[in-house]
Amino acid sequence: RGRLPVSMMLITCSRFHLGVLGDRLTVLRSPSYVTFLDGQWPISGEKVPSLVALTMGFSVHEDLDWPGLQAGPLFQRPRANVLVVVRGVDSLSLPNNITSYPLDNPVPFTLDSVASTVHTLFADSTPVVLQLAPSEERLYMMGMANTVFEDLPVTLQQIRGRLSQEGSILNSLPVNSLSRNNEADLLFLSEIQVLHDISALLQRHRHLAKDHAPDLYSLELSGLEEISRHYGKDSPQFQDATSILASILQKFAADVFGVYSNNAVVEVVTVQNFETPLTRRSRSILATNQISNSQRPYNLAYQYNFQYAVIFNIILWLMIVLVLAVIAIAYNLWNMDPGYDSIIYRMTNQKIRLD
């Protein structure tokens, strides 16, 4: 497995959509069988991991009482889920055809539980679990995925050094009022470079998207927040950075969506600031996930586990097959002619005739 430290944050803005204020959850891309309904139903920040798990076809410990996600087919799940979190901005200006929902109670959250589920259910495969965050950057992969992403920069210094190498976004991206010598600007540009490199690696190694194990990408961007703090939200630097990031994010979503053959969900969460500081605990997602719940003081088991859907389908279809078999046997027995269809009666008839 590899490790990649990057400070990250996300925001998108292409066309201004007036009248949309507050923290948002925006769905940039989703396959046809994952249906997000149009509406302004707020979703709590602590429920975002459950939403990601449900879009990937996993079970959750607590029901998600939110009408925005429609139930999908049992035997079809996305091959990847990409969640990009943006700190420092409460709303994004996006095209009108993109589904977006208000985000209530913007508490810090991680996708560690979803990553642990992916590893547990697909431990014998090569799922890619990529997590990038400002305070703890982690890049977990299994099997062949290690060698695919080993060329990504490992430290923030290496990432900034990547900007001066061949294939840097600075050669093709108009930075406008942004400076290549300012610390905040370099942080923002380095995040854009990492998004570009991840997309490029996935396009060169499309075999990662063809296995049966789903992949998980969790990217948290903080460069725009630093620019806002350094220059202010009304500055031309912030406006230029917002426009650049909006364009890059939509291209990134389109590229990932294409790599996974339109079988990926790409979401964007924009939050001005979290209600409580996010404290991350350094641990491996490969370790067993110990679930603690203060609402279960007696350590009672949940009513079902992550295998519930599999067990349910096995029992359901086995019962249906057995019922149909019993009906078919009973029908044939009811319409059987003992003189012709039964060897017992046939032999008895012959014996009587001989006597």
- SS-based structural class? alpha/beta
- The secondary-structure element order is EEHEEHEEHHHEHHEHHH
Oligomer: single chain
Radius of gyration, taken over Cα atoms and rounded to an integer in Å: 27 Å
What share of residues are in beta strands? 5-15%
Euclidean distance between termini CA atoms: 86 Å
User: In what order do the strands lie side by side in the largest sheet?
Assistant: 2-4-1-8-3-7-5-6
| Global outline | elongated
Average pLDDT across residues? 77
The helix content, as a percent range, equals 25-40%
Pfam families: Renin_r, RENR_N
Subcellular location: Cell projection, Dendritic spine membrane; Cytoplasmic vesicle, Autophagosome membrane; Cytoplasmic vesicle, Clathrin-coated vesicle membrane; Cytoplasmic vesicle, Secretory vesicle, Synaptic vesicle membrane
Domain Renin receptor N-terminal: 22-272
Protein name: Renin receptor
Tell me what the structure shows.
The chain is 36% helix and 13% strand. It is built from 10 helices and 8 strands. It has helices at residues 48-55, 112-121, 145-149, 156-162, 183-204, 223-231, 236-259, 308-334, 338-341, 343-354, and strands at residues 24-29, 43-44, 80-87, 99-104, 128-132, 138-141, 215-221, 264-271. An 8-stranded mixed β-sheet has the order 2-4-1-8-3-7-5-6. Strand 5 (128-132) and strand 6 form a beta hairpin. The chain is elongated.
